[in-house]
């Protein structure tokens, strides 16, 4: 391993978007792309990490500078042979290169790889930028621009990359192109190609980055809901509007992308995944054993129910994937789905009720997280969550025409599956939070 890759590996292990937490990255360079300004080299590394059981491919843009930048300590990756390496999204040289390559339909060439900009609208020329903090799987950069239709845009850099169209690009662009303002407007994407010996032609093609509308003054729905629940504020009107917004997004997706009738094999496959997850979770979370038969009974009822058609969905919907804008109301973002699933899985038509179940569980988590502080009224926040779920469901049904009561057997199965997954996650990562999904499991099997 070269000195540069060694330094990058040490730095990667500390990043929030690095998936193999606690492991030492085992990196090799698959390909690289080059660019930059005079005296500054920009290299976009595509690095294969073989530390996890299933190898993952990461995109790591690096800016090489001859001198240390005094105001960019947090972005410093390390030093190799007198050159200082900086994380590209934090560096103006990379941001300028990325945005203008997309806007101009330009190309980046490199070692066994290339990338091509695919512009939709010229966003303007970057003048300043800063990185969003707290993201788990990608890196988003707020970019100030001159000469464009808006004063700010967001450049999203996909850290985990795959062959195939990223749904965060295709779904969001499709919804926006259909005239919906329930998603940010798309300005263009950067599509790359790189060697992949696992493919018949030896080449993989996928999205590396995208530029889209920035919504100033917006706030994610998790924080909005958490603040309302903590204050005991009535959230019914906003929850109903959120249900209507999600239904509108589903409606647009069904109009823009193909839908498929759900067949017996689709139902069998979905339930097999749920039952497999239940077996894994029960083995690690003994408290689930008391509910196992009741959970299986819910899955059995779902097997005999009529399932809605399959369509493209969000895939990882919760309150953190929605923004509130005083000007536009609820805006749905981050259509990437679960980043660790294959692109083929994430682009497959699914049941829209999966998104509904994810949002219902998110209301529970607002109440449950407040309960962790010991100072909140458990009954009060529990009632707040129940009211939020009911209002969201009412809004969704009213806009979509899908009666969630009539679809309860299928919806309960998806919501239980989500809660079972949560028990596994909390047992592994936040044992003190395990009571949140366990309470949901108890409630769902009791009401089924």
From TrEMBL:
This is Maltokinase. The keyword Iron does not apply. Belongs to the aminoglycoside phosphotransferase family. SUPFAM superfamilies: Protein kinase-like (PK-like). Pathway: Glycan biosynthesis; glycogen biosynthesis. Monomer. The keyword ATP-binding applies.
């Amino acid at each position: 391993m070269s000195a540069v890759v060694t330094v990058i590996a040490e730095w990667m292990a500390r990043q929030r978007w690095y998936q193999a937490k606690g492991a030492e990255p085992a990196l090799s360079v698959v390909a690289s792309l080059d660019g930059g300004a005079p005296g500054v080299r920009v290299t976009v590394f595509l690095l294969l990490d073989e530390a996890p059981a299933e190898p993952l491919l990461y995109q790591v843009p690096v800016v090489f500078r001859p001198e240390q930048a005094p105001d960019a300590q947090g972005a410093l990756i390390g030093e190799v042979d007198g050159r200082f390496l900086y994380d590209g999204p934090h560096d103006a040289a990379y941001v300028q290169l990325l945005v203008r390559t997309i806007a101009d339909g330009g190309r980046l060439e490199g070692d066994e790889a290339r990338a091509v900009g695919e512009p939709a609208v010229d966003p303007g020329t970057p003048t300043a930028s800063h990185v969003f903090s707290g993201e788990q799987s990608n890196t988003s950069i707020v970019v100030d621009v001159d000469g464009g239709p808006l004063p700010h845009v967001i450049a999203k850099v996909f850290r985990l990359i795959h062959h195939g169209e990223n749904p965060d690009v295709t779904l969001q662009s499709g919804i926006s192109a259909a005239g919906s303002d329930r998603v940010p407007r798309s300005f263009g994407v950067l599509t790359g190609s790189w060697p992949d010996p696992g493919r018949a032609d030896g080449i993989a093609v996928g999205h590396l980055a995208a530029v889209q509308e920035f919504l100033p003054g917006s706030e994610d729905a998790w924080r909005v809901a958490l603040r309302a629940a903590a204050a005991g504020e009535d959230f019914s009107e906003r929850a109903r509007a959120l249900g209507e917004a999600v239904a509108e997004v589903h409606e647009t997706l069904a109009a823009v992308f193909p839908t498929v009738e759900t067949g017996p094999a689709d139902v069998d496959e979905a339930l097999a995944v749920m039952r497999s997850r239940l077996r894994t979770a029960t083995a690690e979370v003994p408290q689930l054993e008391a509910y196992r038969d009741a959970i299986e009974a819910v899955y059995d009822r779902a097997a005999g129910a009529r399932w809605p058609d399959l369509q493209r969905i969000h895939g990882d919907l919760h309150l953190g994937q929605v923004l509130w804008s005083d000007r536009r109301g609820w805006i749905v973002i981050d259509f990437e789905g679960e980043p660790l699933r294959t692109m083929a899985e994430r682009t497959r038509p699914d049941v829209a009720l999966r998104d509904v179940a994810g949002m219902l569980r998110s209301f529970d988590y607002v109440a449950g997280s407040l309960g962790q502080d010991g100072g909140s009224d458990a009954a009060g926040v529990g009632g707040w969550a129940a009211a939020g779920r009911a209002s969201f469901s009412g809004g969704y049904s009213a806009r979509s025409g899908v009666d969630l009561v009539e679809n309860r057997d299928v919806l309960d199965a998806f919501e239980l599956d989500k809660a079972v997954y949560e028990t596994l996650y909390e047992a592994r990562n936040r044992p003190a939070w395990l009571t949140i999904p366990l309470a949901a499991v108890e409630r769902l099997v009791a009401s089924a």
